[in-house]
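Lab notes, practical 5.
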Amino acid sequence: MGQVSGFVWQTAGEPTVYWAGDTIWYEAVAEIIRTVQPDVIIIHSSGAKFGDSAPIVMDAAQTIAACQAAPQATIIAVHLESLDHGTVSRADLRAAADNHGISASRLLIPLDGETVNL
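Output from the prediction step:
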């Protein structure tokens, strides 16, 4: 769909946070993870699609790939069950993570309105 933007926040004494933004899993995202080695990664994980298109944001498999690429990071999956064109539920993502041995303490899947303290 075109250019995407993600953000990296870094400051001394605080965790480095990478907000991947509206993107799919591809080499540029993997490269940011390799070079920055963020402590926290926020991923839009709903697998949103327009019609029969490929996902326009990460789906469960792509979120799992990000978790595997960043074993040192805490991943926070957002935008689940909040978009009418999303294809991945919180339960779907948790099941996929469990099947890949990714714990609930490493892949956080907050509820709507839930606060996550870093």
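Observations recorded by the TA: The chain has a mean pLDDT of 93. Residues 74 and 106 are 5 Å apart (CA to CA).
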